[in-house]
Amino acid sequence: xxxxxxxxxxxxxxxxxxxxxxxxxxxxxxDLLA
Length: 34
Fold this sequence. Notes:
The chain has 34 residues and is mainly α. The protein is 82% helix and 0% strand. The longest helix has 14 residues, at 3-16.
């Protein structure tokens, strides 16, 4: 998967997530991809 696609996917997951731990994990992933 291309990086831009992954970033959009993770941002969408982040927006729909209500779980704080999941949000932190996704933010860390986005940080690594950036």
